[in-house]
Amino acid sequence: MDVWDRRKKFLVATDSIIVGREDTFQELKGKLTNSNSACKMICVVGEAGVGKTTICKKIYTDMRKEFTSAALVYVSNEPRVQDLLLEIAKQVGLEKEKRNEDLEVNLCSLLNENRCLIFLDDIWTTEAWDDLKNVIPMNSRNGSRIIITSRRTDVGRYIGGENSLNELKLLDKEKSWELFFKLMKSSSENTNEIFPSIELEDIAKMIVERCGGLPLAIVVAVGMLRQRRRNKHAWNEVLKILSTSTENNCSKILSLSYKDLPPDLRPFFLYFGLFPEDEEISVSDLTKAWIAEKLIRDDGNQNPDDIAAAKLEMLSDRNLIQVSMRNFDGSVKRCRIHDLLLVLCIETAKENNFFCTRHDIHSNSFSTLRRLTIDNTSQYSISNSKTPKLRTLFYFSNLEEEWSLIPNEIGNLSSLTYLKLSGKFERMPSTIRNLKKLVTLDASQALFDIFPRTIFRMKNLKHLLCFLDYRFEYNTSTILNVRDEVYLPNIETLYWVPGTILKASSLQKLSNLRELGLYEINDQLIDVISGKTPILEKLQHLHLNTPELKRLNLSHYDHLAKLSLVLSRDFQCTLDTIEFPPNLIYLNLQDMIFTEDPMKILKELPSLEILSLFYCTYSNSIALDFSGANSFPELQVLEFDGTEIPELIVDQTGMPKLCKFVCYQKHLNVPDRLREIMVEP
To answer: Does the pTM of the predicted model rise above 0.70?
Structure first.
């Protein structure tokens, strides 16, 4: 089976939403591409769901190759400016050191020195623009271009004036039907199968009419009809509900799309309401939360990741979520939910007491509350709560604000199984040890001034994700001050832990560990990991971030499929001292200095399917040789990013299964065979 089938299906549905907007698309793109044009910015405005993001994202995707660097960020209703600037800085390639020193000055300098394409999606207020405009290259002489979307015409006019303003209107009757028809056709091999009878086509046209020309409503209606039988009775049910409801057209369709979900799929959809607006949501985060809450059962019969993937594909097929990134095999990696559907999630969750947000917390709901999402601006206080059934807590803080406090009373949430923290906090209370039922603690996006050592002795914890990001001067090993050994007998996922904390004697006891991320690794740990007998027999993913790596033997780890090695750029590396696992599928090498061709070693890996090399340096003018009849027998994806890439030697016999070449470098002399399969990163 073609591993790209799922991805192709997704891309067809996404591209077809441009239907009815072709002229607008060409006009907007022309304004930005015309070198004689004074226009350096377009501001596209229009109501929610009209297709602003879709059309502008296609413009962005089509044009980004023409620029030195490009960035796309979602601003939203409650923007975190510092986070947005950091995200722009990452996307345009600002070095980590410069992101740490003086972010705004260094980013502004880089953007003004280069020809950049910047897409700021969904700006709600003039204040948000005022916070960003000093960094954005408005008057660049290098041909930079800016794309803005907003729901408010006055905001668009404030940002760029009348010349940049472009209003996206509702589709007319003809274009609405064209969009509906092409979306339906994308799910059917035979066009005649779409409407087996004239009566069915007439019903479809009446449903489209109820959508009022709003593309989002049409897309969701198509997703709903795809799940029903192609007969008059089934489609008439949809039409009848749309015709009798007193809600506005879009609300009717969105509400009906939820009611049309199978009961067992509804909680998975509602779960998206726990995340902030315009958040790119990690499938890994979702899966861990669903397992912790027992929405997905990890009973050993079926892989929980496969179950989660199936649920997400069902929601994607119904057009209720937007897939923003897919893995190389086509499965969903990151996803988002449209603002209007997010509102539906929150309102429906409130009606069903599925979860609460900071906007609708009332004391009478505490006794039955199971899920809660709050931030540090909320009036809600954990210390005053009486939530005996609370199982999931999302706690968001703003990196731009003062250090937030997590109250000691968090330890009283005796039923809590999943805790996600994001932002900047003074400390993690030591009372966290009282959460005996806690399965997942995700602090991967949280900065702590103090982090308790008791976290490493929570016996029932299965997933612990700690913070690691070099943009802050933050050293976990000195802050934790751990004296006792790590004791996590049930742990399956552990990121990121310094070698100064995780002693070799403790590591040997983590018998259930499947994913491990380590940094500041010492020789003793390497020796234990490299022993003749694997100390972690169930290990599947290993990530090592260390200044140097003189030796490593993973040849006995039969289940280890994914390996990531990140070294210091000051350390010259040779792969001769590394013995790779026999069934390795994915390999990421980052920040390495190679004095000889690493492909001499890597081309022999029998099962390797994905190879990524990021920010590596190649001295002595070496070439990377991928040629040879027995080279990379299973490799399907080759990916480069970072520093200058040397000569690539490719023939027709090496890499016989290669189907995708991803390269972030501009002006690279790519061999013809790779250019034929080169795709946008």
So the answer is: yes
